Amino acid sequence: IKSFAIADEASFRALEAGALSGEEMILAALRVKQAIVTADERESGVRRALNFGHTVGHAIESIEESNDYPLFHGECVGLGMLCMSSPDIVKRPYSSQNGYSYIMERL
Hints:
It contains six helices and no strands. α4 crosses α5 and α5 packs antiparallel against α6. The N and C termini lie close together (10 Å).
């Protein structure tokens, strides 16, 4: 979900519509990451998008470590994405209430 949310509206909509198989989703997500890393090898600009959800996710993860059944890293990042996708936090063309709802429903 993260790769599609940071890629572009068309990619996010394809994911939302269920238009991709599991293998297609993985390959598309890897292409997004590859394109971003290639464009910004030193993390001085667009590569920061790959951190979407991680800052808040790591905070959640540090709290969760003390639980008997802590959340997985990806679950914590997903919750961080949810926080950062809230319409009250950030406004993007494809970070609409629908995008927020989509991410929330899949977490």
